[in-house]
Amino acid sequence: MSEPLRVVVLISGSGSNLQTLIDGQQAGRLPIDIRAVVSNRADAYGLERARAAGIPTHVLSHRGYADRAHYDADLAALVDEFQPGLVVLAGFMRILTPAFVARYSGRLINIHPSLLPAYRGLRTHERVLADGCGEHGCSVHFVIPELDAGPVIVQARVPVEPNDTPESLHQKVQVQEHRAYPLAVRWIAEGRACLDNGEVRFQRVPDGRPPVIDADTDIDAL
Ligand code: GRF
What is the pTM of this model? Predict the structure, then answer.
């Protein structure tokens, strides 16, 4: 057996996606070792989730920093202490500098609440509803300097129904986030998805391209 993939998770808030990775690690479903959880906010609930799991936590507040470059340099120095093979953005509400992104190229992933390339940026649920879309979802992608634009590893879709609100959509999308993110992390940890020349190279993934899962998909079979 090879060593589990060393992971650092960056958060700013609830950390429900972090929890799915913790659960997957603890249950033996994910061959990962979450070495640390880092938050830019001391009040992020995800820090409690990490502590409850016995994972070291660190708070690096962005307050008091003159600019992003200095913050990101200190963030990188902190992350590097744990020598991660993968850095997971799980609701980390900061735009990262190109230098930070370049440092972790191919080792930095994010989950975004839309079916990219549609609806980059914030308030995706509100915008999907305002446009009358019939479908919404989330995307796990490798991070590149351009915001919410990196190559997609997996997407999950949910139907938009007439009585949906931003909150109901948020909840439906999060249910699928909690399936899609562990799946993408497992593929990377198993060496089945990697960034190669700006594209995701898949091995033993159906059709060799980013799948779109939904509520009925048996993700354990993927
Ligand atoms: C998720 O909805 C994700 O799409 C976005 O930030 C949110 C994080 O939620 N990037 P949580 O902190 O994992 O609950």
Answer: 0.97
